[in-house]
Amino acid sequence: MSLGVFYLLFKSFGFSFPQVPEGWVGPIVVLFMLIVGGITFYALRLWRPSVSPDGTGVSVSLPRNGATFKFVIDMLAANDKKSVEYEGFSDEALGALVKSQQISADTTEEAMEMVRALLGDKVPPFQVARSSFGGYVLRVNNNHAR
Predict the structure, then answer these.
(1) pLDDT in tens, 16-33
(2) Burial class (CB within 10 angstroms; exposed 0-12, middle 13-18, buried 19+) of 76
């Protein structure tokens, strides 16, 4: 396409083109396409978005009007394609409102602990563990059970 545009542009200025043997037209067009494709590929690789090296980074934006603790934890687990079991949490703790904000962490477990830190005393300290079925288990620490 761009080769045709250049051809028409030069022709409109009265540029006289040398005659190219018919056998060289195809290779010249292919060479031009490879050069343009290579430049495009290089430019796309040069300015591509950065990705965490191990691909495990977690970044979540909470809704503008906030969300409950349980909703945020379930959302983080769903982002990792896992489910969550809650052990020892009261209804008040699960319904505690987390204000709107961005949460970024290296792992899902760290992100879950960050949510608890945002809520302070509204949610008791807990441990995040993997369950036998592959999901997450959030257990309230024994000395803080409500």
Answers:
(1) 777 888 899 899 989 999
(2) buried
Length of the chain as a residue count: 146
For tokens 């005393």, name the residue.
121
Q: What is the DSSP string of 71-109?
A: HHHHHHHHHTT--EEEES--HHHHTPEEPS-EEEESSHH
Task: List Cβ neighbours of 102 (8 Å cut-off, separation of 6 or more).
Answer: 59, 60, 61, 62
Q: Could you state, in order of their start, the residue ranges of all structural domains in the chain?
A: 2-46, 58-144
Taking the alpha carbons at both ends of the chain, their separation in whole angstroms is: 70
| Mean pLDDT, residues 80-87 | 88
Side chain identity, residue 61 = S
Distance between CA atoms of 108 and 101, rounded to whole angstroms? 16
Pick the CATH number of 58-144 from 3.20.20.70, 3.55.50.10, 3.60.20.10, 3.40.50.10260: 3.55.50.10
Q: What is the pTM of this model?
A: 0.57
